[in-house]
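In response to reviewer comment 3 from the previous cycle, which asked for concrete evidence that the modeling workflow produces usable outputs, we include below a single protein chain processed end to end. The sequence was submitted unchanged, and the resulting structure tokens are shown without manual editing.
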Amino acid sequence: MNHEKEKEAVTDFLTKMVEDDVLNDVYHRPVATRFPPEPNGYLHIGSAYAIHVNHSIANKFNGTFNLRFDDTNPLKEDMKYVEAIKEDIEWLGIKPPVFFGSDYSEPYYEAAKQLIRKEKAYVCDLTPEQMTEYRGTLTEPGKDSPYRKRSVEENLNLFEQMKKGSFPTSSKVLRAKIDMSSPNMNLRDPVLYRIIHAEHYRTRNEWCLYPMYDFAHPIQDWLEGITHSLCSAEFKDHRPLYDWVLSELEVVEPPKQREFGRLNISGLVTSKRYLRELVEGGYVDGWDDPRLPTLKGLRRRGVTPEAIKLFLDEIGVFRQNSAVDAAMLDHFIRQDLKERAVSVMAVLDPIKVIIMNYPEKQTEMLSIKNNEANEAMGSREVPFSRELYIEREDFMEVPVPGFHRLFPGSEVRLKGAYFIKCEQVVKDSSTGEITELHCTYDPLTKSGSGFSARKVKSTIHWVSAAHGVTAEIHLYDKLLKEKSMISESGNKWEDMMNPESFVKVKEAVLEPCMKNASFGETYQFIRHGYYCLDTRYTIENKQVFNRIVSLKDSWKKAKG
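The workflow returned the following structure tokens.
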């Protein structure tokens, strides 16, 4: 660690702890952290938070950060999740070395035998139900297993037979011998190993003996040279067991487990269990549904890694589990996009405007800036013609007080073009629906011409009817209704779903330049929000755009 790093202000309790260890030479190896996901699901924004905490702290001290798959349960894990997790972490801009817990099967086994020889572990034949009974309660101590006094030789022999597959699944376990009267339930002779006869996705049928996470985790950290094992707050009560394992194995300079609060976001489902219920129940469009906070969903929605980093930098590190308003995440998505997105005109609910005094066959190319906030992005040429589309909501036949857009007899500016005045309203004779607006334009009011000193109170966007391209627009909002309460079981998701969370607009009209829209690019649809091409439903001759985020920033206003 260099002197400049030493002088940096400490911004959170974890960084302060690591800084103290570095200054006091607690470890004679570089700072090392890790992220240890189980490959049985997909990463979400909460995972990104944990990754960010571990990775950023390692970076601050010129240390290392590992991705380690906690894959010691063959019943749940799959290579598809491994590949998805690696892809998501690389999308976040991190390319860590990759390790697998399943590669340490032999060291786990030898460590367990070491504990048996020290009379710190024993093979137990109690059933799961009996073990629960013997464990006691929060107010009553547990009682010793009748198998706790087995000899070292008997335990070693039984453990060897467990490894060879001589016993059925769950018929025996290896338990730590600690203290059945401990006030910490995790220290009441916890299970270290169990028998599972199932094929593992990597090691196949090489092993039928698998370590519990609380036993494997500290050994994994030790083998990889981790100095600071930073994990979520629910593992705080497990820390004494983490330390016990390393102490009994007589590890020199053992890694430290320290905890921080989980990130929850209002209105978003961030539990892997509930996300699975939503996906497998068909309530959402797969793991990459843009309404989900999975990294795949955020990516498909059009959120960038840079926006996620801005958000995570702002929230810092929580001591306790904490909830953040979803509006805050949206704010940083806007902050990231506002100077990089091309601003284009898109009419989502079109009504036709015919400019009666404009030449019928004339097309005029008008120059419009690509981004009002970023001059360096230049401008583009947009075709203007006699027939246009404007938003239906930009016209009122009988205007309410304060309405300053188009109505009979009023004038507005068309963005980057001319003033137009509504002269006549055309309706469908059978339904009474307005089908066309007949207008006139003032040729002396062309944007940038400097000829007209007249002012109007409103500017509206438009698209040339002859040149516009049609597209389908997907408008996404919060998945669940306000104040929805998620319970441990029996959630009636169909009653909790926000009916406005997914709205399709099938006949939007966009500027002709959007015919060449690219995947991975972001566009600001003027007055509507930020959008990108949907990677699943956009096919040849059919463009589908997802709304990334609206323009309304409620978090910024609330903060101000």
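Residues 1-10 have pLDDT under 50 and may be disordered. We consider this sufficient to address the reviewer's concern, and the full set will be provided in the supplementary archive.
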